[in-house]
Amino acid sequence: MSDVKYSPGLEGVIGGETAVSTLEDGLRYRGYLIEELAEHATFEEVAHLLLHGELPTMRELQNFRERLAAGAHVPPEIIETLRKIPASASTMDVMRTGCSLLAHWDPDVGDNSREANLRKAERLVAQLPVILAARARLVAGKEPVSPDAHRSWSANLLWMIHRLEPSPRWIKAMDVSAVLYAEHEFNASTFTARVVSSTLADLHCAITAAIGALKGPLHGGANERVLEVLQQVGKASEAEQWVRDALAKKVRIMGFGHRVYKTVDPRAELIKKFCRELAEESGNQEMEQIADTLESVVKGEKKLPPNVDWPSARLYYYMNLPVSLYTPLFVVARVTGWSAHVMEQHANNRLIRPDGIYVGKPARSFVPIEAR
Ligand code: ACO
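Above: inputs. Below: predicted complex with acetyl coenzyme *A.
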């Protein structure tokens, strides 16, 4: 057995090298602070940065957008399958199945070269929102809306879900949310994608597995639970009592705490401003008051900061998005970061295979079945 120190949950363990992002000196994607990216860049520019390594020039952005538009085609057989999946299935499960199905029609599926991985990743950035929106509409008894090549990624996503012209404010809010959800170093789902790609399995396998990892409530699944919490509280006047009772009962409040951020999650701070604007526009100020009360009590009592999922849930709620889409909205943004990590792993691979500490029965001899 190795004499390396054991750290439950691999906390503090270096899982590998990456040039995609860092949390040292602020959260930076390929060197750029997320604050600057959220303020000035569109999601397409950030997707290009993560996948290709650099922010695009005007010409590169134009070409990238043309490739996304061309890659958004989802085979009709997949849309037909989405119709047949029981309405009770969670949208995260449908995203996982959808990603897996897309592999069967992708011409580059088994090719792990950088060029093929880039083509597949760009297609997924365009196709997964189509699957998300189509499923949302089918479950609501409506027909899917085709992607519109003339709209930006965020505008198109909102258009395909609502079939209503999104306001510039909604488009900016969705862009900021997607930019901030796009990448986050060696989190659980990204690590999953890296483990899968370290066996030299292909990009669709890695992304399908990552979607499964993101679903859990301790990771991306928290943003759907956050809205349940806010709705359970109901009234601003009851928020303080509700949260004090919950903490006394040792309830884990979804949307708080983080393995790495112990004082502040910068992404949560950035999204809050947009929550305020959209709450006012949609007449949801009371939900903001409830959120503020919960935030100050959890910070005061447990010293836990809100994480990115805390404001994201409200942001989506104010844009009339069904709760079942909140974690899938995380997927369609994070596929950029996951893909960048898959390409990095394939480019400089060593099978990821840690050791375990055996805590089972001591060595013993086999007993034939008649003698047991
Ligand atoms: N509410 C109440 N108490 C909490 C919370 C919370 N949300 N999070 C942590 N704690 C408490 C734990 O009970 C524990 O207390 P104790 O020492 O008295 O037993 C202490 O803080 C440490 O908690 P751990 O679970 O050991 O910390 P860890 O680093 O493993 O947890 C995690 C990080 C899983 C994110 C945790 O904070 C949590 O469960 N949060 C709620 C789920 C959530 O919001 N997840 C989204 C994370 S962001 C993302 O994935 C995009």
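Residues 34-215+325-347 form a domain with the Citrate Synthase; domain 1 fold (CATH 1.10.580.10).
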